Amino acid sequence: MKTMVVNGRTFEITKPSTSPLKPWGGFKSIYEAYKKPSSTKVQIYEDWERWFSECDTLASGVIASSSNFYTHGGIVRLCGNKLYNVRITYAHNYISEIL
Fold first, then answer.
1. Strands 93-97 and 9-13
2. Full-model pTM
């Protein structure tokens, strides 16, 4: 598995995508995804949103959620104007170039 470090976070590189993330319902805040999010979910969400704010980010937020877990995602510009999809799950951080 190849990895890539961006602003201090390590991501697993997945195969390139032909389109940017387009989550059903759009990118949501943690409060739009959950009526009463746990303090742990809020802390993780805020930490990743801080990370996205340090990047050249086009969009970010919750892209999928269940009662236990959520997936954070976004579209960032890196490496000489290339766009990347970023997906953060409870177990993995993924990044894929958008062709």
1. parallel
2. 0.90
Q: Is the dihedral of CA 74, 80, 95, 15 positive or negative?
A: positive
Side chain identity at residue 13, one-letter code: I
- Note every long-range contact of 84-93, with CB atoms under 8 Å and residues 24 or more positions apart, other chains counting: 85/17, 85/20, 85/21, 86/11, 86/52, 86/60, 87/21, 87/63, 88/48, 92/12, 93/9, 93/10, 93/11, 93/12
Residues facing residue 17 across a β-bridge: 98
**Predicted pLDDT at 22:** 87
Domain boundaries of the chain, sorted by first residue? 3-97
- The C-alpha atoms of residue 12 and residue 39 are separated, in whole angstroms, by 27
